Amino acid sequence: VQLQASGGGLAQAGGSLRLSCAASGRTFSSYIMGWFRQAPGKEREFVAAISRSGGDTYYSDSVKGRFTISRDDAKNTVYLQMNSLKSEDTAVYSCAADARVGTVNSAYYRRAREYDYWGQGTLVTVSS
Hints:
single chain; 7-stranded mixed β-sheet; 11 strands
């Protein structure tokens, strides 16, 4: 599967952006989808993930209550709505897909190494 992220850009603190990640290839609905980010000089970190059904979502503590992940299987797209942006949200955001079959626990979604496919990143810059 190929992933194409878009929607990054410059936003002011307190503002909003919506990232999109379009997938091609195998059946999109069979993938667990996640968003990760990497700020300059820092390690990549988990942001949000969504189950195959869309019924379960997971967030890092730093974005919970401000970001919302969703998916539209008809459009083969996963979204990350980012509200109340902070300067510390500045990073390159990447989407990822995992083709694992079967039940997984919540910790699984947060581990970058579990994801099989990665898109190129999209830069989000938040000015204070």
